[in-house]
Fold:
Amino acid sequence: MPMNKQTSCDNEFDPNSLSFEQAQQRIQQHVTTLTGIRCVSIREALGRVLADDVCSPINVPPFINSAMDGYAIHASDIPASGDTTLKVIGKSFAGGPFNGTVQTGECVRIMTGAVVPEGADTIIMQEHAEVAGDCIKIGSEHKKGQNVRHPGDDFSAGDIIIKAGERLSPAKLGLLASVGVTEFNVVRTPVVAFFSTGDELKGVGKTLQPGDIYDSNRYILFGMLQKMGVQCLDMGVIPDIKQQIEQTLKDAAKIADVVITSGGASVGEADYIKEILDEIGEVNFWKIAMKPGKPLAFGKINDALFFGLPGNPVSAMVTFYQFVQPSIKLLEGEIADNTVTLTARCLSKLKKRPGRKDFQRGLLKTDENNALVVDTTGIQGSHMLSSMSKANCFIVLAADAGDIEAGTEVEVQPFSDLI
Ligand code: AMP
Ligand code: MG
Structure:
């Protein structure tokens, strides 16, 4: 093969590459929701994905109540003009209702959340009432029914309040508590095993010999997986020895729903992942027309999903973020796609060769006019974690784009809190 036709990471136009979108689609087609479900209580449920719809057993609010501190009155007592005086005949506090009936010419002192007493249909804010002894004086500016919350305003008994596939946030835990639902089914927590491969990699705390580097990927994966709330199993650093990698992959696939490796997935002499996977699983090795992160292995070892991420830490992060993260969410049956993309004015010139979709690391902020602007975080090497650690977003440049001039509007994908 002539030199200029050789496929390498420097060759931006690789006819054998999949587009980013094709790779996304192919992965999604292979992922099915975990079958196991677990019945949990509210305090165990944060971050889990609901397995069945939850219906409310009650109306919320459950009774007619006041939205303000003030006075409960008959709307017919609101004067057409001028003032009117009403007699205060009792109190309705949250948890301490007034048991009588309000007649015209009367009112009841009422607090936020308290039951609106029989006869009354309108609340006057206390700031709009002038107290004089056991009476109040009100003006004509009020509307019938104001400041009253009705039963079922939020939702009614029997309504679905959270759907299967929704991830439980603090607001949703509150919602479940507000209707008195204490136990429900969630999809079981996925187990994710991961390890790094490479003779040069040392765990932190070890002394570096010439040619060694510290392993960063296991700490990155640990962090991102922890944030996803999965159960993670760190299987360490495995040297570039075929039998050891093979054994570790087999062990991992026995206990995990997802197995992730980093390194050894390209075409170097010590890159055994492809060879091993051909023997023990089904796997696709893809060159994806994206930067960073061109080589990615995806497949299965028995029932476990397998992702072989590139070794360079930034590439490992980008491919995890764009492919592994959504796959784990699908595995959990999550229905929402929370990916948000924005358009921002780019403050710096960005280097880009047409051919691959580029995920450059950027800092999204607002300028003095409150407009969204984005700046590069500096040199973009796929081994350089410094530019990743300063970033809060990807600047997403289309495959066919060339250099970006400062001042151009660009697509930006803010990081979820995973990075
Ligand atoms: P590989 O994919 O194994 O060819 O690795 C590509 C580059 O990433 C090499 O420079 C490796 O030293 C580096 N690398 C691989 N794994 C890690 C890791 N876990 N942490 C930091 N750098 C890594
Ligand atoms: Mg290697």
